[in-house]
Specification:
The protein is mainly α. It has 8 helices and 2 strands; from the N terminus they run ααααββαααα. A hairpin with a 5-residue loop joins β1 and β2. The longest helix is centred in the middle third of the chain and has 24 residues.
């Protein structure tokens, strides 16, 4: 059997391990599948760089971790924009798009009013989630268990749906 066939079969045999590792990194099944696929493609593209008789699984996990870190850094960069006033502050908040109508502006004000009424322990995780943070990032930032963050965001969504149901 030639080296390429061995490389490919070894890569195929580690797909379940790659998916488990991707799930630990992303905590999102769809993102984990994408990360696994991207890792496999990058490994195939860089087959010539792999040194035979070294830890193949470790090499793949390093590729995956690096892709994840680079994607995370890119997402942070994409959420950061410069405030070109004196002092040049950098803000990590999404810019609000112009309102399409007065009705949309009123809807947004109503949503903000409801969120503002929430207790801090619900408002903080939900606000961070709206700004694009992942559940794991919110948990780390607020020093909360991941399950607590997920449930608080879920309950906040339910409350918004209840309160906005008859709004329009």
């Amino acid at each position: 059997m030639n080296q390429t066939m061995t490389f490919n079969s070894h890569l195929v045999s580690l797909q379940d391990d790659l998916l488990r590792f991707a799930l630990k990194l992303t905590v999102d099944p769809e993102q984990a599948l994408d990360l696994r696929q991207e890792t496999s493609l990058k490994a195939l593209d860089n087959e010539g760089k792999f040194e035979p008789h070294t830890n193949f699984k470790g090499w793949l996990f390093t590729i995956m971790r690096n892709i994840f870190i680079n994607d995370y850094r890119k997402s942070v960069r994409d959420r950061t924009y410069g405030d070109h006033t004196e002092g040049e502050f950098h803000l990590n908040q999404p810019r609000e798009e112009a309102y399409e109508s007065t009705e949309d502006a009123y809807d947004l004000k109503e949503i903000r009013r409801i969120i503002h009424k929430l207790p801090r322990e619900y408002k903080m995780p939900f606000s961070l989630h709206l700004r694009g943070f992942k559940y794991r990032e919110i948990a780390d930032r607020l020093h909360l268990p991941l399950g607590t963050v997920k449930s608080r965001i879920f309950f906040t969504r339910q409350r918004l749906q209840r309160e906005l149901k008859d709004f329009r």
